[in-house]
From TrEMBL, chains A, B, C, D:
The lineage of its organism: Bacteria, Pseudomonadati, Pseudomonadota, Alphaproteobacteria, Rhodospirillales. This is L-ribulose-5-phosphate 4-epimerase. GO terms for molecular function: aldehyde-lyase activity; L-ribulose-phosphate 4-epimerase activity; metal ion binding. Its cofactor is Zn(2+). It catalyses: L-ribulose 5-phosphate = D-xylulose 5-phosphate.
Amino acid sequence: MNLDTLKANVLNANLATVRHGLVKATFGNASGIDRESGLIAIKPSGVPYEDMTADHMVVCDLDGRSQTNLYRPSSDLETHLALYRAFDGVGAIIHTHSTFATIMAQARHPIISLGTTHADYFHGTIPVTRNLTPEEIKSRYVAATGDVIVEAFEGRDPLEVPAALVAGHGPFVWGDTLESAVLNAMILEEVAKMAWHTLTISPSASPISQDLQDRHYLRKHGENATYGQN
Amino acid sequence: MNLDTLKANVLNANLATVRHGLVKATFGNASGIDRESGLIAIKPSGVPYEDMTADHMVVCDLDGRSQTNLYRPSSDLETHLALYRAFDGVGAIIHTHSTFATIMAQARHPIISLGTTHADYFHGTIPVTRNLTPEEIKSRYVAATGDVIVEAFEGRDPLEVPAALVAGHGPFVWGDTLESAVLNAMILEEVAKMAWHTLTISPSASPISQDLQDRHYLRKHGENATYGQN
Amino acid sequence: MNLDTLKANVLNANLATVRHGLVKATFGNASGIDRESGLIAIKPSGVPYEDMTADHMVVCDLDGRSQTNLYRPSSDLETHLALYRAFDGVGAIIHTHSTFATIMAQARHPIISLGTTHADYFHGTIPVTRNLTPEEIKSRYVAATGDVIVEAFEGRDPLEVPAALVAGHGPFVWGDTLESAVLNAMILEEVAKMAWHTLTISPSASPISQDLQDRHYLRKHGENATYGQN
Amino acid sequence: MNLDTLKANVLNANLATVRHGLVKATFGNASGIDRESGLIAIKPSGVPYEDMTADHMVVCDLDGRSQTNLYRPSSDLETHLALYRAFDGVGAIIHTHSTFATIMAQARHPIISLGTTHADYFHGTIPVTRNLTPEEIKSRYVAATGDVIVEAFEGRDPLEVPAALVAGHGPFVWGDTLESAVLNAMILEEVAKMAWHTLTISPSASPISQDLQDRHYLRKHGENATYGQN
């Protein structure tokens, strides 16, 4: 992918998170990777969204070695890098403090699959990470945030459940493309809102059956998908 | 009814569900039937709403035999067909994942008639369907979803309570016309939101009296209706 | 007051309830009275808000004797008349199904004065009416709805607490002018929303002290009011 | 600072509170101080926001001695003055009745630091003031409201936790500049909303660790801040 295209797509994804109400103030950041060149583009730190152009996007490689840039990258860069290094198929990552996903992260409440809205996009429970240790917080906080997300997906395919709730913080969401990562971030917020309300009126609500979860997830994903026009 | 009129009306109903905030992403679909010709028009599968025109609407008969179409129909077509076959007076069907109706479906919580807002449009409890069996999910999921809705209305007039909550999924709503189905879908969401909040602050809240339910429903429906200018 | 002015003001108040999100579909109605002539103007029944003009407003006297009108009045007319007859200083009445005021009416939960937002506009508890009897519902439902509101204010000044929650139905709100009735309807909805949430997280929350209630209510109302520029 | 600049900034901050949905009707007021001249500009009392210009802003000194003004100041002026006198580094103060901050104030529920959204802007618990005594309410209500806020910060740096919830009333928020006070008022409302929902689904939720609170607060504040482009 052309680097200018990547930067334009990353800009668009960042603006989409604001337009969809997932990001307030300057909370949140989106990045994308071109797996061929190994280059990543990410939002700059603390630049107001209304002033942001593709040229503000910061480019670096998988080890965070910066290319020529006008700006400093998002303060969450090291978390993005840890996820790109660990999760092969991921092409884009979005971090937000969207209201209900953050509420569930603050409550340390994994989001179980309570309905087909969830199952259409997330194949199983959306996990909450463990707490960071005091040492991790002090010495390598941002990178360790990536590590505990990776830990939470041990033995699982991160593209089947493309989101994690960082305990006491908020969601990180991903996808194979920037478009799918934005969509997953929107759906996560709606799924989190529905889960919060479902569990408040019905605290013992249980997940829908594995059969129903599979039926919905697999009609939209994988080689036997039937949804859409292709 | 002219087929072009039907397709235009179905397009408008689909767009109305988005405009009224009942549908996010591509969740949701509306269809209409011309009872004289027996032809149904329904939204195509997975086409973005902003690109949709009347020509995208997919036409078929009551057994799903497709007419000449450019697109594949909504993946929920078989549910719509089951309802049109079982419910004579129904002229239009809408499926959404609107937030509070879906929450009540996830909580498997029927919506009792807690107030006159409910009673003006729904004459009694809005039911939740039974769970599908593993066999139903695997072999004929979409049609079986229609069957369990029909089951939930055994002995009841589906036009008096023009909505059902599919357990763990979301609402299906109907009406004699596309306009009334859209209105019913909007009112259902508001009624579900009010019910959720009423029952959370007052878990033992009970339905309004049958007299009051009748008074409100019948002033707007049936031959003795007094509401409006006609 | 000129009758054309009254009708224009009543139209504006009806449109304001929609603009402020207090009314969905055609739920709701506003009326005003010219106490000098004894004439009332009220919204017509079931006319879509987007088509409404001042000429649609229906005029009658305090006994409901209709003047020359193009349309039938709101189906809630008799409730408005009962309130105008019983409450001398009331110049305008608004009925809505605004979300949280209706939720509290469905929960049959009076709104106690939990904060100064309440106290600035409502001097004490906003009452819930008693249930109507089966006979009242069958024989004179709409007028009886007015009667139970009047009952709930026995021994109280209705202008000091310009709203009531009709059990299982929704709010009626009033004021000395159409402008103040619209404002009271907006504040009621916000106060109801805050009360619902306060009581859900803190079920034993109690009213603010009478001193504090008086301090806030009286700085905005009565002869010793100090608020504003006059 | 030029007095005209101060008045323009104060006007903008007042309008921003409306634009961000923190203020309904005429609830709320913003003021700013020029510490060099000791002059304060504050919103006038009861003037509709849509008519407000910089010339409506009311100017006085720290003891409330009025300069030449066209209007009467906000009825909350004495609270602002008490805070400016007690809190040296404060350059701007905003009072709103924003929904969730007011709900927590009505519930008398301090907002503990449940997540990094809170910790990025508020270094510790946002306190609730004690109740005013009947004497304070009757004799010097507005100034006493300022005093109980000051009391709640005894031994704490008010710029580290730039907000207080006045019991049974609502939030007062501040900052070193008008821009930061507006941002703090927005973040407070979001943090209060998240806290309400976190505690409702998880009543025993506890604060994030002091290490994590420090990590987030100090990356945005103080001499070692690393956030942004400077």
